[in-house]
Amino acid sequence: MEENFKELLDKIKLINKEGWIKSMKRGDTGVGYTLETKLGIKANSKKKPDYKGIEIKSFRKRTSGALVTLFSQVPNWKESNVNRNEILEKYGYLDENERYNLYCSVYANKKNSLDWQLQSNKNEKKIYIKHNNINVTFWDLEKIKTRIINKHKETFFIFADTKKENGNEYFLYNKIIHAKDSSLEKFLILLEKGKICHDFVMHRKKSGATRDHGFLWRIKNISIPELFDYNKEINLN
Questions:
Q1: Of 47, 171, 176, 202, whose CB neighbour count within 10 A is largest?
Q2: pLDDT per residue over 189-208, tens digit each?
Q3: CB 134: neighbour CB atoms within 10 A?
Q4: Are the beta carbons of 142 and 188 closer than 8 angstroms?
Q5: How many whole angstroms separate alpha carbon 124 and alpha carbon 143?
Q6: Is there a contact between 29 and 214 (Cβ–Cβ < 8 Å)?
């Protein structure tokens, strides 16, 4: 693992030395897609880490508290007797473009503006998502634990400065938080403090089918070190 760490770090240092790199894709996914393309990693939705056992998460440097996706995990549809189509149908809304969708971040320490809230129950070994205090569906803690351990045994969180010129965005990858050994216990502590949330990102396609971008578990960028037993900041400037 030490060899893989050094190999990946050296590659990112070389990318940093290139200076400002033009985004290869528009929008928020550009920062990660551009870096992984430079690293020779093909886009995928696999549950395994990106690079020889090391997960890579890259994002723009933003104001404190911006959210970073840790992983995606669907709820336990079977035992909660509901599915994503029914959730969108019952709780979705029309946006300004008259598209029916459900986009929101849901926290445990407070209800959001759409009356959603998370609640962990260690006795039942579940994380519930509630609407108006009524359970809608849930995640098994054991499933969340497996996703955390498998996805984030070792992770590079990579920060990028950004600028725009002539309608194009450019990135300068210049800071890394190298983190190892996350745990369910730390995850739940941050969940209760409102530092980790779940995001609904779904809408109805013109065909009538439901489209989602995963059931995302996200962390505030300033709270990343708190999720891991080991973390070290590496500045590349």
A1: 171
A2: 999 999 999 999 999 988 88
A3: 8
A4: no
A5: 13
A6: no
**DSSP code of residue 97:** T
The number of helix segments (H) and strand segments (E) in the chain equals: 6, 14
**Would you list the DSSP string of 171-207?**
EEEEEEEEEEEE-HHHHHHHHHTTSEEEEEEEEE-TT
Which residue, 128, 137, 140, is CA-closest to 85?
A: 137
**Residue 137 neighbours by CB under 8 Å, 6+ apart:** 75, 76, 77, 80, 82, 87, 128, 129
| Residue corresponding to tokens 């969708």 | 101
- What's the pLDDT tens digit per position in 218-235? 999 999 999 999 999 999
Does residue 198 contact residue 129 with C-beta atoms inside 8 Å? yes
> Residue 182 — very low, low, confident or very high, per pLDDT cuts 50/70/90?
very high
Flag whether pLDDT at 44 surpasses 80: no
Q: Quick one: residue 64, left, alpha or beta (phi over 0 = left, psi -120 to 50 = alpha)?
A: beta
Query: Identity (one letter) of the amino acid at 168?
Result: N
Other beta carbons less than 10 A from residue 121's beta carbon: 12
Alpha carbon separation from 118 to 44, 62, 108 (Å, rounded):
29, 26, 4
180 pLDDT above the threshold of 80: yes
Buried b (16+ CB within 10 A) or exposed e, 221-232: bebbebbbeebe
For residue 66, how many C-alpha atoms fall within 13 Å in the half-sphere facing its CB?
9
Sign of the C-alpha dihedral computed for residues 78, 81, 86 and 87 taken in this order: negative
